[in-house]
Design goal:
- There is one protein chain.
- The chain has about 130 residues and is mostly helical.
- The chain has one domain.
- About 70% of the residues lie in helices and about 0% in strands.
- α1 packs antiparallel against α2, α1 runs antiparallel to α5 and α4 packs antiparallel against α5.
- It is globular and about 55 Å long.
- One of its GO terms (cellular component) is membrane.
- It is a multi-pass membrane protein.
- It is found in: Membrane.
- One of its GO terms (molecular function) is transmembrane transporter activity.
């Protein structure tokens, strides 16, 4: 649970930092920091997989793969063609090229709040390490 919470917190902060970055040198710093978030997804997958019967493992992994595929399709449309294009165009009320990262940070923040509430309702496994 701590690993997942830490990973989502790092993602929230890293995406906010990407959006606020005003100099090129800031990006590699955020990338190194943001790499710590990579522990969250495998930990979430392991936690969910451990909560289902062995006969249901294939369905769980298929669901994760399907969600990953859907985000790979729709994220560029929403974040690049949508938000970035709008907030860097003449039609934008303000010039805000970091808008996609601010939305990403907000989505990670929302998932962090939902996760915290979920963790409060579900008792921790005595053998859980994550």
């Amino acid at each position: 649970r701590r690993t997942i919470t830490m990973g989502l917190t790092v993602s929230t902060v890293a995406f906010l930092a990407y959006g606020l970055a005003s100099q090129g040198w800031m990006i590699p710093v955020v990338v190194v920091f943001g790499a710590l978030a990579g522990v969250a997804i495998p930990t979430i997958q392991g936690l969910v997989a451990g909560a289902v019967l062995p006969s249901e493992q294939g369905k769980i992994h298929a669901a994760f793969t399907s969600l990953t595929s859907l985000t790979a399709i729709f994220s560029p449309l929403i974040f690049t063609a949508g938000l970035f294009s709008f907030f860097t165009s003449d039609a934008a009320p303000i010039m805000l090229p970091g808008a996609p990262f601010f939305l990403g940070s907000a989505l990670f923040g929302i998932s962090l709040v939902v996760l915290a509430r979920l963790f409060r309702r579900i008792p921790a496994s005595p053998t859980a390490k994550a």
